[in-house]
Amino acid sequence: MVKMYGTAAYENVGLQGSVLNASPHQLIVLLFEGAISALIKAEIYLEHNNMAAKGNAISKAINIIYNGLKMALDMEKGDEISRNLAALYDYFIRQLIRANAKKDIARLNRCVRY
After folding, report:
1. Domains of the chain and CATH, by start
2. What predicted TM-score, i.e. pTM, was given to this entire model?
3. How many CB atoms lie within 10 A of CB 102?
4. Who has the most CB within 10 Å: 2, 23, 38, 109?
5. Is 89 within 8 Å of 68 (Cβ atoms)?
6. pLDDT per position as a tens digit, 56-93
7. CA angle 32, 7, 96 (to 5 degrees)
8. Which ranges in the chain belong to alpha helices (H)?
9. Which distant-in-sequence residues (6+ apart) come within 8 Å of 99 by Cβ?
10. What is the pLDDT of residue 65?
11. Would you say 19 and 30 are in contact if contact means Cβ atoms under 8 Å apart?
12. Rounded to 10 degrees, what is the CA torsion of 58, 43, 65, 78?
């Protein structure tokens, strides 16, 4: 247990350092990586029938997409690109909610691929 905690703490410090030194574009990449990582974990949890962990992982991905990626959009300056990305993020969120409710690995995979 101590080893797992130490590894998690080390990863957290590494992530904090990456975030503090990142450009706005690098922050977006980190958000995408975080969402994808959470979805891959959700798939693994679903395969192992760990529904609580699956739900937490999908919730984390939704949080990253909504509060990170979508909220970072500049709807005034971004024009059509921002509107299209906002619609895409909303689509992903709806798909993830459905995947969670229906325990649908295929739907999770589609979100990761796009």
Report:
1. 23-113 (1.20.120.340)
2. 0.82
3. 10
4. 38
5. no
6. 999 999 999 999 999 999 999 989 999 999 999 999 99
7. 30
8. 2-20, 24-47, 51-63, 79-102, 105-113
9. 42, 58, 105, 107, 108, 111
10. 97
11. yes
12. -160
Tokens of 74: 């500049």
In angstroms, the Cα distances linking 2 to 6, 10, 11, 12, 53 are 6, 12, 14, 15, 20
User: Is the pLDDT confidence value at 17 over 50?
Assistant: yes
Using a 10 angstrom Cβ sphere, with 0-12 exposed, 13-18 middle and 19 or more buried, the burial of residue 72 is middle
Structure tokens at 110: 């589609």
CB-CB contact of 103 with 46 (8 Å): yes
- C-alpha–C-alpha distance, residues 114 and 110, integer Å: 6
Task: Indicate the average pLDDT of the chain.
Answer: 87
